[in-house]
Amino acid sequence: MGGSDDDGNGDDGNGVGSDIDDQDGDVSEREIQPDWITPSGSEAQDLNPLRINDTTSAARLTPLLDGPYGLDENDEFYGYWFEDYETDDNQTWTFYLRDNLEWGSDYGQMTADDWVFHVENIAQYEDNWAGHVNRSNWDSVTEVTAVDDTTLEVEIEAPDPLFVRQPTFWGTQILPQALVEPYFEDYLDGNEDAGNELNNADAVTQFEYTGNLGPYTFESRSIEDRFVAVRNDDYYLRGENDDWEDAPYFEQYTINILEEESTRLAEFETQGLSTIEIPADQVESFQGDDRFTLVSSETPYCSVQVYNQRANGWEELRKPEIRRALSMAINKETIADDIYRGFAEVAHTFQPEYSEFYDDSEVEPVGQGDSYDVAEARSLLEENLSDGYEYDGDTLLDPDGSPVVLTYVYSNASDLVEDTARYVSSELEQLGIEIDATGVPFNTMLEQYAMVAEDGEPLGIFNDPEAEDPQELTSAREWDLLSGIGFNTYPRSPASIAAFWTASSGTNFYGYVPEEDIGGMIEEGATAEDSDEQQAIFAEIFGILSRDLPVNFLYFQDDIFGYQEEVVFTEDPSPSWGYKSNSWWMTDDPHN
Amino acid sequence: MSMTWYISRRVVWALIASFIIMSFTFGLLAASPNPTTSQVAFDAAQDGADPQEAVETYEATRGEDRPLFEQYTDFMVSMYTLDWGDSFIYQTDVLGVIADAWIYSAIIVIPSTILAVLIGFGVGLYSATNQYTKTDYAATFAAFFGISVPNFWLAIMLILIGGVMLGWFPTSYDTGVSWWSLEHLHQLILPLIVLTTAAVASEMRYARAETLEYVNAEWTKTARAKGVSEWKIMFRHIFRPATPVLITILVADFVGIIFATSYVIEVIFGIPGLGLVSYNAIINQDTPLVLATTLIPVIIAILGNLLQDILYTVLDPRISYEGRN
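Structure tokens for the assembled complex are given below, as produced in the milestone run.
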């Protein structure tokens, strides 16, 4: 099995994260400091937990509402509102709520009934009357029962050993039944706008319901300026153990909106912020500076270069050998080490190496070490291109005798993505292929190049599951290669990759038609009760993908976080980094 | 024609003009794709959900699932009855958003405009009356530098040099600082430098060009021959006749500063003003807020034009409102 290079102290070879072990903070010396200040590049889109599905908005809610549980560095259950869980058959799951959870205002104790109401009347109600954005998370749930006030029984449609890692519960924040019920009844009485009225209710926009359910309590919100929460005097988790002894350790939690990246970095450098996320090309400015601690953590997001196998792409891309040849001519190590300054891991399949479902022996690398070979790539092209294609010197000609020109579309959202696109273009041109590269805004890339179009108009979907042949579909504009997009590889619950790698998958805008029954294998893996068997099935799938290369799996970009040196952490860097962030503290106040 | 009748007619025209502009803006918004929609669809597809259903839910929460004409009439009625509704992205009433934001724009735009007028007109006038001297060249160089240097670049450089390297100024604007304090003034210095640099340069060039026309005018020569002091010549015989044109330019510049230059300043320094709110409303297709923030510059421009016309009649005796008939 593959494994992470991470040795647990976060030193990834860049000197980033290595100083966490040197922290001299002593639990008994903890003091409560005045401020934790974090930046945000934009305003929240939503404040209603039922409608939030972006990280910017979620960042406002998480200091106020912990959620049921998190996943620790080993992807194990870490209880917040839910103290524990158990299952005998992986199909019926019982969750135990703590008995000291209190909603705000007059909404009383959070009980299992709140969850049953949420599932039955919001998440799974036939009409999406409340505008709930994550209803699909609940598709596998067939029944929820309140056994008593603090015991919730959940039955799912088929046994799933990884259910606890699915976003069904761990990513879910709900509203109290007592708050929502009047609006629901209003909806049943014919008021179709009841969901929007709930959304705009003071109780929701002023977070009056959050009670003791998070470490902080909402204080104020100044539009395009800042979001302020203050220490919650009744926080339910306080005293749980040493880490949470007197948590949280800050009187005030502030989100400061600074749209411009250079301003955020300057503000962090002058100690106006406690933490910041640092782009890879800016890390050098902070590395080796004693005033800051840098932590990098691996992510599950795989950046890919997409090969268009649909009717409006280069038809040669439908052959795995051609896709392999192009992938072989791009050195992924150069991208990871030089463009991303070492803050990215080379990818070879749709799973990071730290995943327990990744198996070295199954995966066939390409574009790294010996498998990066331009001459070999050219030979592979010559052997597998259709009749009529030939090289004239160093130029590849099509059957009409014209040079082969591929249209390459990439997102111009960041300098690093643009640099990668320029590098990829230059590598492919070594194969005698002319690249016509265009940078476009991300949403334009999705709408004009990824979505299915009819008569040149995007239809709002990325694949038509009913289509007899997905390779007959087209987008609004022609393209052959596309990059600047990252896919979630779901290393915790890989059954979710069904959304990507079957002919009818929802995201299959590349027209991939696998030769093997990947859909069936995913289903088999998802319901395998034996974990070894499950790992073997998914390892095989990831092996197939590494050979088939429906897209060129390029790299997994790391997240890089900077902190003022006074910050003391209570967890080791991991892909789950931050799951205990509300128990972190500071040895001194750097801000005043 | 009385002044009251003249102003009434202009106000009616203002209403018609604003109606046309608002309708046009609504049409543009309706025709533009919303960047969030495709993101919502892709997120849903990636989660294994139905992207079309996700988009329908998103549009329903914004009232965009209704017929376009219904949306249009609703918005126009709400605009003219001053019931501007709630912003989609801020989930609060539009008037409240604008009420909170305008003051932050005002504290940089008003001082900057005053400084730009005083410095720009002053130096332009001096430059015109001292043409082809070293000081004229220096002023011309400064003007071209101010016009040429990109505001966002200058702002970032000032933050890095004045804020990070020297530590003399804050690197961003802090709304928590007391309004009437030296600390507040301190944190306004960098934004004001950037904003004023841009404005002063254009005012200076206009002022120089306009006043040059009158430097060698017959009445100026006559006044000089009669022994009138240079200060009086400069202000009464050169600057005053140039003023109507300069005021025209000033109105256009003022609107430009609020909704173009100040946006850059507000983004870079983190000032939650009207430019920033307006821009984000457009990016997020927050229709009620876009229309409201569009209406404000329209009103300013129309009122500015009205004021300009009235000032014309006061400043230039050759023009009268009767003559406009």
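Residues 1-13 of chain A have pLDDT under 50 and may be disordered. The longest strand of chain A covers residues 33-40. Further analysis is deferred to the final report.
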